[in-house]
Amino acid sequence: MAGKFRSILMFGAPGSGKGTQGKVVGTLPGFYHLSCGDVFRALDPKSELGKVFLEFSSQGKLVPDNFTIDLWQDHVQRLVDGRRYNPEEQVLILDGIPRNAAQAELLQQHLDVLLLVYLEARDEAQMVARLRRRALHENRLDDANEDVIKRRFQEYDAESRPVLNVYPPERVYKVDAGLSPLEVLEQIIAGVRRVV
Asked: What CATH number is attached to the domain comprising 85?
């Protein structure tokens, strides 16, 4: 892949709405949404890559960094080659990657991060309720098990939260994830307008 992809990162705890909001912003002209979780879930569970993903996700653990970045690079290249994503005309809306500071560092050679939208979740119980609803509506087994959910929050606090320190503070844009989805979207659009 040549050059850096202009990107906006959707970031927050499990259940904060980064996927939901990323999908909406990605439908706007000039944007393309890519969820790393969707990339993983689209893997054939019988393939080697699929087996690695299932081994980790079923326990609520994060997939190893090198595997994640390789899979992400391969997927983005296929989108470009298939002309589904045009980096010259579209800003990449990413959610689910980077998941930790090491991934953020690895991605710096590929991404020109215009903004990191931090969906700040202050009410963990509200996020757990969202995850349970998602498990029912999207058949997401990883969201149905309470032990897995708790482990995902612990992983987020230990592994993901430090990503906020990788990017300059002026590129981190905080939004209260506890607001209504429409209010959250309005705030995200206001932040995105400043950088694109």
From this structure: 3.40.50.300
